[in-house]
Amino acid sequence: MLSYQHAFHAGNHADILKHYVLFSVIQALNTKEKPYTLYDTHAGSGLYDMLDNRSLKTNEARSGILTLVQAVKNAGSEPVPQDLTAYLDYVQGYLDKSLYPGSPKIEQDLMRGQDTLILSELHPAEIENLRKNLHDTSIASGSKKSVQIHERSGWEMLKALTPPLTSRGAALIDPSYEEADDYEAAAQTICAVHKKWTNGIIMLWYPLLAHRQEQIQGMKAFIKEFVHSINANTQIDEYELCVNTSDSHKETSLQEVLHDEDKKNPPRLYGSGMLVINTPWKLVQQAAQTLSFLERVLWAC
User: Is the pLDDT of residue 218 over 80?
Assistant: First the structure.
């Protein structure tokens, strides 16, 4: 979707879920010395300025990452999940500079010199920013890892370049879903990739939208059925973070909007989810407590 720019949404509740899961998966991969390959199909620009007009216009970071960081500081005696603390300690280094790291930046910073990062982005402005942000020595992690940036469809890239030579690895898939066929494309791509790379960790981010519930459920069911048709024991997990109720957005008449200030910008995305194939065991153990904490902090912010 060439009109989509993530700068409007950087640091929101959906980013927190997606990046927490990504952070945990990379940490799990790093526990073994063997190299791995990580694919990111919809990379965006990799780094976002919290003082950018687009970010300030929507202010989604205020009710997302900034609310979360403040809540953790004020937690007092309430225990903060250790895996969440590790992610927030990492993010804080960027927030101190009024920046927020997107998935490519997280990947670049956490991956090691022997690993390979493969990114795909189609938006002409986003890919130029991506190239700049990953090669800027003032913000780069300093690692000599291999980074490939492709200006091509993420669906095509993932199908063409898997399985990796390293065998070990993961893929992050997070389209904007502004195109109606993104749900089908995600399902078809994941099944095609898993068929030839059965040990790869695949992470699919999806939105929680009341008017798309049938498509979302159908996409997940299709993927699960296919994966389990190959091996019924393959671990598949869903992690969802809701910040409102599913009916929190309702279509309203113009008259209602004009007379009710609260209805001018009703929430559409009431949460999001991550479907993970071949889930690392540590994520399975830790996620429930972390998601419960996140939901308490971010609910209806």
Answer: yes
State the average pLDDT over residues 139-162.
Answer: 84
Tens-digit pLDDT profile for residues 252-265: 444 554 555 554 55
Q: Is the pLDDT of residue 228 over 80?
A: yes
Look at residue 174 in the predicted model and tell me its pLDDT: 95
Model pTM score? 0.90
Which residues face 47 on adjacent strands? 101
Kind and range of the H or E run holding 118: strand 116-120
Residues 174 and 191: their CA atoms lie apart, in Å, by 15
The residues carrying an active-site annotation are 174
Question: What is the pLDDT at residue 51?
Answer: 81
Strands 201-208 and 169-173: parallel
Strands (E), 178-247: 201-208, 236-242
Provide φ and ψ at 117, rounded to 5°. -115, 125
The tokens 């980074």 sit on which residue?
Answer: 147
- Binning the chain into helix, strand and coil, the percentages to the nearest 5 are 45, 15, 40
Burial class (CB in 10 A: 0-12, 13-18, 19+), 299: middle
CA angle at residue 70 from 65 to 73, to 5 degrees? 130
> Among 84, 8, 28, 10, which Cα is nearest to 295's?
84
CA distance 77 to 5: 39
Q: What's the CA gap between 283 and 21, in Å, rounded? A: 8
The dihedrals phi and psi of 60, each to the nearest 5 degrees, come to -70, -25
**pLDDT at 247 (0 to 100):** 79
Residue with tokens 């990799």: 46
Residue 192 and residue 196: Cα distance in Å, rounded?
7
**Is the CB of residue 278 less than 8 Å from the CB of residue 163?**
no
